[in-house]
Structures are given as structure tokens and as C-alpha cells.
Amino acid sequence: MAEALPDPHTLVPPPAIPPGAGRMALYVLLGFSAGLPFYMFSTVLSVRLAEHGVALAIIGFFAWVQLLPTFKFLWAPLLDKYDVPGFARFWGKRRGWIMLSQLGIFTSMLAMALTSSDGNLWVTALWAVLLAFWTTTLEVAADAWRIELAPTPEEQGPVAASNLWGYRTAMVAAGSGALLFADMAGSISGTLRGFGIEPGWTTSYLLIAAGAFIPLPILALLPRQPGCTGARIPALLTGLAASAGILLAIVAGTAAIGWVILSAASGIGITADTNVLPWVLGIAMAPFIVLAFALPWIRDAKPTDPIRASTVIGPYADFFWRYGFLAIGVLAFVSIYRMGDVLALNLSKPMILDLGYTKSQIGWADGLVALLSSIVGVGLGGWMVTKWRWGITLTLGAVFAAIGNFGFVWLAHMPVNQNTLYLATAADQFGNGMAGAVFVVYLSMLCNPRFPGAQYAFLSGFAFLLARLLAGAGGSIVSKLDAAGYNGFDIFFYASGVISLAALLFLPLLAKAKPRPDDREPVTA
Fold it and tell me: Concatenated DSSP letters for 450-512?
């Protein structure tokens, strides 16, 4: 299959982090920073809500918190254009945003720890959304820096694998550790529950919050970014002060937006019993319809036209200008390639709990077994993209990811046994790790080096739009299937695996997706 790649020679990588082990170690650290909080607003939160008796449909709605990464293109251009006051003087634009994001992750997780009884689901949702927002912002900054540092597949393979090793190691550590800590500390009695604090879950979130904070001082101790002239201590103090103001403003803004959205949903009669699937499919189709009408205009635009020159929409218009109508096919492919992984994420743990497994059993399975399986899958995926054509690597990734989803159906029909759970978990994590590594490099190679942060944010966000919309409706779908006399979980996990495999039907079309040469001056460092 022909590779749909921009010209790698239009970008000279910045000299801040030279190639080699140092760059790979950096991206293990950055991957760890982004991966540690992810399960805390997704899988772990779904277990926490299930234990507190929250209805499956409502747990499904909480999956929509994961839509924040999908819409990161809305604020990604700001990270390319603006600096974080203070931090950027010494550490530069990318590291400045990463450090601010880590502070946001720490404070959001701390708030989730102090509201761990979930007595007010609106408050739980607020802090979960903020945790997702700051985690996503960190990923935007780190991805932009990664694409700048490694603009070719040969360079991207090791760096992307390192990033995913750190990311998935942190995800596994957080998911496994949080459940084990919650089970062990849950037996602690006292008066904390009267203050909205659940000892087991509070302990878990506090410990993971402390782990999420560790990379911040490590980054702060790194050398000055080339081209910056500020001193370390003044830059740090100014950055911390500016960060406090930014964090408070984001909390207030998120609360206001959330109130408007919830009021609107209530006003049109949406409840836990509402069939939201038609709404989900309508929203998912809207971007494709809009793009079909806008593409002829975008394709004829000149570099100086507002739609391409704009800071806000120019990076996204550039993608469609380069790929034309084939961009719609590319977006359709990426929107379903990782669907199985996303659909399984939110409901797999409630299903396993429902089968009779304990939080500790799930925690042990999500520990060493999941970690080793994921590391092997990521490493193999990162190696494949440097050796084989895209058609082969994308196919293998999709097949093994689907096998992981089918494994949940197999698990549901086996007696409760720790080794059986280990095997199903290993298959899931291996397949998702392989598919994830291949997918990250593929998306990175679609980006124009002129707009690495914004375009990667758009592509990686759009890639999960449909899947996360459907994941939010997953609880309702399973409940309605059960009410109709079917095994809802079986059908759900079978369907998610089959849909992921359906992405491979787009491979012949992707072979034709070659970008039009950029008509502007090459980018240099």
C-alpha cells in the first residue's frame, strides 16, 4: 500500500533533544504523564460508579467525558500560537504547556479524591471533565513536540513506541493500583464518609495524583530550551502564579458550560431512559456532510485566503486542501479503526464485576499481565511500521485488537477463574498495544510539519469521535438488549470487534491518498 506521507524534508528537527536514548527516555516520561490519569476518568471511574450503585445507562453517559480528546482541535491551535507565561521563558512553548497541564491533572485528581463518594454526580462529572481536559492538553503539546523532533517513519517508530510504552505502563499501573488500593483501603472505617469521602477510593486517587505529579519536577530540572533566555527560578515562580489563575478560570468556565449543556439536555427531555443512539448517529454523520459541501471551496483556496491563512482554522483547512475528497475516506477509516478498544474501555470492567470477579482480581489482571502484554504489543507495532508497508501493519493491528474484544465474550461464558481473566486481559492489551502503536505513527505521517500540533490533534481527536459517542450510549444499548431478552454484553463486544475489522475495507482507498505538495515556503527550525 502506498504511504500517504508529507515531505519529511520540509522540517528541520529542533536541536533541543538529540536523537537516541535521551529522546526515547523523554517520551517514556511524557507518555507516563499522559497515561497515568486516563483510567482515572474512564475505566476506574466506571468501576467506582458501579460500586456506588449508579445505573449502567448513567455509567455509559460518563464515557462521554472521553469526548474531550476528540474535540481537542478546538483549542490545539492556541498551544501552537501562545506561550504559558513564565514557563516558556526557560523551557519553551511545548514544555511550558506540558508543565501547566501536569498541574491541572494533579489538582483535578485531588478534587476527585475529595469527592469520592459520588454523592453528587454533577460534581463528579465536573472534575472528571477537567481531568480529561488537562490530560488531553498535555497530549496535544507532547504530540506536537514529538512530530517536530521525529518527522520521518524511521524516527517516529522508536519515539512513538517509547511514548506508548510510558503511556500504557502508566495506564496499567493506575488502573491496577487504583483498584487494589481501593479494595484494601475500603475496609477502613471512620467518619470520612460523612464528608463525602470514601476512604478506599480517596486513597487510590490521592496515590495516583502523587504519581502524576512526579514528572513535573523532572521536566523542570531539564536544561534550558535552545533560543530561550530566561532564568530557571524566576520562570518557575512566574509560571506557577500564572498557572494558578489559568486553572481557576478553566474550572469556572467548565462549570458554566456544563450547566448550560445539562440544562439544555433536561429541557428537551433527555434522561437515563432516553434512546440516545439516533442522536449519536446524527451527530457523528454531521461532520462528513459539512465537509462534503465545503471541500470544493477549500481545494480552490490560495495560501493567502482567510480559510487557509487563519490561525484558528487554517491548519485544518490545510489537511483537506492537501488530500481533497480522499480526506473524507481517510477520516472514515480512522474513525472506526480503534473503535473496538474505545467501546470496550468503559463497559468491560462493569461486565467483569457483574461476572463475579472482585476489584482485587481485576487489579491483579490489570497489573503485570496487562503491562507485559501491552509492552510486547506496542514494541511489535513500533517495529512493524519501520519494516513493512502500511497495508500489512494496519491489518495486523486491527485483527489482533478485534481478537481482544472477542475475548470478553469468551470470558463471559467461562467459569470465574483468575487465570481465565489473565488470558482475556493479555489478549486485549496485546492487541490494543499493537494497534495503538501502528495507528499513532500512521496519523503522525498524515500531518503537515507546518502544523504538527493542530493537525495531529484534529486527526487523533476525530479518530475517536464516533467510537466515544457510541461508547456513551453503550450502557443504554446493553440495558435495552437485556430487557429484550438478549445477552447485551455478548452482542456489544461481538459488534465492537466486527466494526473494527470493517475499517480494513478502506485500505484500497487509502492507497490513493497522496497529499498535494505544499504551495508555501518550506518550514525550517
Answer: TSHHHHHHHHHHHTTHHHHHHHHHHHHHHHHHHHTTS-HHHHHHHHHHHHHHHGGGGHHHHTT
Q: What is the pLDDT of residues 16-61, one digit of tens each?
A: 555 566 777 877 888 887 888 887 887 788 878 877 777 777 777 7
Cα–Cα distance for residue pair 75/92, rounded to 1 Å: 19
- Better-predicted residue by pLDDT, 377 or 151: 377
**CA 410/CA 494 separation, integer angstroms:** 10
Query: Residue 305 corresponds to which cell in the numbers above?
Result: 485566503
CB 103 within 8 A of CB 33: no
According to CATH, the superfamily of the domain at 18-510 is MFS general substrate transporter like domains (1.20.1250.20)
CA–CA distance, 211 with 100 (Å, rounded to integer): 16
- pLDDT for the residue numbered 341: 79
Q: Cα dihedral angle (475, 477, 482, 484), rounded to 10 degrees? A: 150
Average pLDDT, the chain: 77
30 in Cβ contact with 98 (< 8 Å): yes
pTM passes above 0.70:
no
At residue 11, the pLDDT reads 39
Report d(CA 516, CA 519) in Å as an integer.
9
* 392-to-1, 295, 379, 399 alpha-carbon distances in Å: 8, 30, 16, 11
Please tell me which residue, 203 or 468, carries the higher pLDDT value: 203
Nearest to 60 by CA among 474, 519, 514, 493: 474
Ranges of each domain in the chain: 18-510
DSSP secondary structure string for all residues of 15-67: SSS-TTHHHHHHHHHHHHHHHTTGGGGTHHHHHHHHHTT--HHHHHHHGGGGG
Torsion of CA 445, 447, 451, 454, to 10 degrees: -110
Least confidently predicted of 285-299, 374-388, 499-513: 285-299
The answer to whether the CB of 105 falls within 8 A of the CB of 131 is: yes
Compute how many other C-beta atoms are within 10 angstroms of the C-beta atom of residue 199: 18
Dihedral (CA of 458, 461, 465, 467) sign? positive
Q: Are 445 and 5 in contact (CB under 8 A)?
A: yes
Question: Which residues, 6+ apart, have CB-to-CB distance to 426 below 8 Å?
Answer: 369, 370, 372, 373
Cα dist from 292 to 154, 161, 434, 455, whole Å: 34, 35, 33, 19
